[in-house]
From TrEMBL:
Subcellular compartments: Endoplasmic reticulum membrane
Function, as annotated: Plays an important role in regulating the size of autophagosomes during the formation process.
Region (Disordered): 559-590
Name of the molecule in the record: DnaJ homolog subfamily C member 16
One family name in Pfam for this protein: Thioredoxin
Biological source species: Astatotilapia calliptera (Eastern happy)
Location, primary (coarse class): endoplasmic reticulum
Gene3D superfamilies membership: DnaJ domain, Glutaredoxin
Record keywords: Autophagy, Glycoprotein, Membrane, Signal, Transmembrane, Transmembrane helix
Residues covered by the J domain: 31-95
Sections of the chain in a coiled coil: none
A GO biological-process term: autophagy
Record-level GO cellular component terms: endoplasmic reticulum membrane
Biased amino acid composition, Low complexity: 577-586
Length: 776
């Protein structure tokens, strides 16, 4: 009985064990042949045909069935296995779909107490945070990396960037082509980047990429989208189209002299590539873009009969690409390389060693910094032998002699250059110690730069006319310099050089405008409306504003015409209310008068010291004699500003509070020096009549209006008074008129006050107004 009780649980355990074992060792993988509906002997063409049909049928964007996504994953994974001969053979032999598993009948996975967990079940062919493609992770871009590294570097080489995301079905299809193109483009020097929208949404928005997958190019900081089918040839052409069109000039027997002789005008060495192919190689175009600031590039097609004389002249080998660099001597190349498989590293080294002429002209600060670098402790000293000369014909012999001397230089620490005194006058005046800025005779100077701020040690060597004596003197100075650097006895702060090629900015702007218009047209042709939205929005906004302005102007003109007749009937009222119409205000006046209170010791606290924040008190300074005239003029000038709720108007009697005025204006030197130059005597008492103070009690500052007599109508008034019998009456009229005109420009000053453009004089503490000045 006991044995029967024990046998029942044991039987259950055995059955469960068999079932679990069957589950564990059952075929965990799906059958790719069954999924695609092909036989095991199907060809690659048949597999591809069935895959395309099924992928189109089960694509989640087109098939709304709940199981469409899972089925599409199985179809994609099955095609990935059967389209690869190695993976297909592995499956046929071992029944494995994951080539990361070891061959044989053993399973690879996590085992927990005889329970097998096959994690390949979750290994979908998509990007994820933990299982991202290793090749893509190498090129992953972040926002700061793009802004700080990629954009500056795009001025030397173009970048090809892929926009992708997790669970991107279409990204799987372009992956093989993308990997092949990346491998080729990277070897040519093209930058590569990958942006995952799921983790770099900010960068994707910055680039204007709103769908995946997308491919774009970046050059000179400008983003261009790829619109064609993802194929190797299309992507290669896309990279080539990113480059400027005028990088490489085609050279034949007809224009070779014109091309090589332009070294003097462009101040650059010239490079010629001889090759058999009709089109300029992409590698050469990329090198031309990287070194466009230093070298001028030309291409010679050896297959053309028009280039036969050039090939014969320089003895070019037709079996391998040949690259020549020419400097000042156009009859003989300064350097040459020839290689069947010309690589980027070889070209970069060749270009870097020939970036400058033997004796280039200093045309901008950038070239000066590279030719004559700042002395650093961990580097050897660098000296510049500089010829200060002119561009006229009379200096050509001396300039040629200097070039001949520079070509014999073998010292690595010495660089030769020349500068035109007419174009770089500030630099030449310092080095020649010429204070009159008059063009002097050519002179040679040896200098050494000490810091980036411009400090340099230098020594004028000799006046230069190209004679043998001049050459011998310069040679002796260089030998002395090698032994004793302290012979550079002068020091100065050198100014920044003028950019002699700045006039070419207009041409560069025209080219940039042409490229931009081409890009806009290209976007329109490809219906890339999402990227075009900012531009279209700007255009329509401008048209809307223009149209709205015209409509408003038309309605306002018609309303003015309608109001003309009623105003004409009431002409008397219009004349009476015309005061202050010359000024403008943001808020119309609420009253037909100006309320002006006197600033006394009683109103001082409420009108100034305890004035609410944001409020100002406009204070007119007057005397008993000028009170009526100035108050009337003051009211007319400030009337249009009375609609503001933050402005208060007061007047200060100078006869009572002149000491307060003196104390207030002592806090600023500008206020105390008012009209000092116009005073006849040094001890003359200051007259503040007609001054206006804008006082901000909370922030403790003031703005000051100084009366300016404009003299309007004074001449006519004087001429009328010439016939008067009493001379005193004439003087009284002139004095009254002068006081009246003191506030002529107050309206303009008030407008500047409201705009916040007036200077402010800050006061530590407001002086008290409790004392009345005694009459003297």
């Amino acid at each position: 009985m006991a044995r029967s009780k024990l046998s029942l649980p044991l039987a259950i355990v055995v059955v469960l064990h068999v079932l679990l074992a069957g589950l564990v060792y059952a075929e965990p993988e799906m059958d790719p042949y069954k999924i695609l509906g092909v036989t095991k002997g199907a060809s690659q063409a048949e597999i591809k045909k069935f895959y395309k049909r099924l992928a189109k049928e089960w694509h989640p964007d087109k098939n709304k069935d709940p199981g469409a996504e899972d089925m599409f994953i199985k179809i994609t994974k099955s095609y990935e296995i059967l389209s690869n001969e190695e993976k297909r053979a592995n499956y046929d032999r071992y029944g494995q779909m994951d080539d990361t598993q070891p061959y044989g009948n053993t399973h690879y996975g996590h085992r927990h107490d005889s329970f097998y967990f096959d994690e390949s079940f979750f290994n979908f062919p998509f990007n994820s945070k933990n299982h991202r493609d290793f090749a893509d992770s190498k090129y992953t871009l972040h926002f700061n990396q793009y802004v700080n590294d990629v954009v500056p570097d795009s001025y030397k080489r173009p970048y090809l960037i892929k926009i992708t995301s997790d669970w991107c079905f279409s990204c799987i299809h372009i992956e093989p082509v993308w990997k092949e193109v990346v491998q080729e483009m990277e070897s040519l020097g093209v930058g590569v980047g990958v942006v995952d929208v799921g983790y770099e949404r900010r960068l994707a928005n910055h680039l204007g990429a709103h769908r995946t997958p997308s491919i774009l190019g970046v050059i000179n900081g400008k983003v261009t989208f790829f619109h064609y089918a993802v194929a190797k040839e299309h992507l290669r052409q896309f990279v080539e189209d990113l480059l400027p069109q005028r990088l490489v000039e085609r050279v034949t027997d007809k224009n070779d002299l014109q091309f090589l002789n332009s070294w003097h005008e462009l101040n650059k060495p010239h490079v010629l590539l001889f090759d058999q192919v009709p089109a300029v190689p992409l590698l050469y175009k990329l090198a031309a873009f990287a070194y466009k600031d230093y070298l001028q590039f030309g291409y010679v097609d050896q297959g053309l009969s028009e280039t036969a004389n050039l090939q014969k002249q320089f003895n070019i080998n037709t079996y391998a690409p040949t690259m020549l660099v020419f400097k000042e001597n156009i009859d003989k190349p300064a350097d040459i390389i020839q290689a069947k498989g010309m690589k980027k590293q070889i070209i970069d080294e060749f270009m870097s060693n020939n970036k400058f002429l033997l004796a280039p002209r200093l045309v901008n600060q950038k070239l000066f910094d590279e030719l004559c670098p700042v002395k650093q402790f961990h580097r050897r000293r660098k000296y510049c032998v500089l010829l200060i000369t002119g561009d006229e014909e009379i200096f050509s012999f001396g300039n040629q002699a200097f070039l001949s001397f520079a070509s014999t230089n073998t010292r690595e620490v010495v660089r030769f250059a020349y500068v035109y005194q007419r174009l770089q006058q500030p630099l030449c005046d310092i080095l020649t110690q010429n204070k009159d800025s008059v063009q002097s005779q050519p002179q040679v100077v040896i200098l050494e730069r000490r810091n980036a701020a411009g400090k340099a040690f230098f020594k004028p060597v000799t006046a230069w006319n190209g004679s043998e004596e001049d050459k011998q003197c310069l040679q002796e100075e260089l030998e002395r310099l090698q032994k004793d650097p302290s012979i550079l006895i002068h020091d100065a702060m050198l100014p920044e050089l003028n950019n002699e090629f700045a006039s070419m900015f207009i041409i560069r702007w025209i080219y940039a405008s042409y490229d931009y218009l081409s890009e806009v047209i290209d976007d329109i042709l490809h219906n890339n409306w999402r990227e075009m939205m900012p531009l279209l929005s700007l255009i329509f906004s401008a048209l809307f504003i223009l149209f709205g302005t015209v409509v408003i102007q038309a309605f306002s003109d018609s309303s003015d015409d309608k109001q003309t007749k009623p105003k004409a009937k009431d002409g008397t009222k219009a004349e009476n209310g015309s005061s202050g119409s010359s000024s403008t205000s943001s808020r119309p006046p609420k009253k037909n008068f100006v309320e002006v209170t006197e600033l006394t010791d009683i109103t001082y606290m409420s009108n100034l010291v305890k004035l609410r924040p944001g409020h100002m008190n406009i204070v007119l300074v007057l005397t008993d004699a000028s009170k009526n005239i100035l108050l009337s003029k003051f009211a007319k000038e400030v009337y249009s500003f009375t609609g503001s709720l933050t402005l208060h108007f007061s007047f200060l009697n100078l006869d009572k509070h002149s000491e307060w005025m003196n104390t207030l204006l002592e806090y600023t030197q500008d206020a105390m020096q008012i009209d000092a130059d116009d005073d006849e005597g040094a001890n003359r008492k200051m007259d503040y009549t007609g001054y206006v103070l804008a006082l901000n009690g909370h922030k403790k500052y003031l703005c000051l209006f100084k009366p300016v007599y404009t003299g309007e109508d004074l001449d006519s008034k004087s001429s009328e008074d010439e016939g008067a019998a009493s001379g005193g009456r004439s003087r009284s009229s002139i004095s009254t008129l002068q006081i009246h005109h003191k506030l002529d420009r107050l309206g303009l000053w008030m407008e500047r006050l409201m705009e916040g453009t007036l200077p402010r004089y800050y006061i530590p503490a407001w002086p008290g107004l409790d004392k009345i000045t005694p009459n003297k």
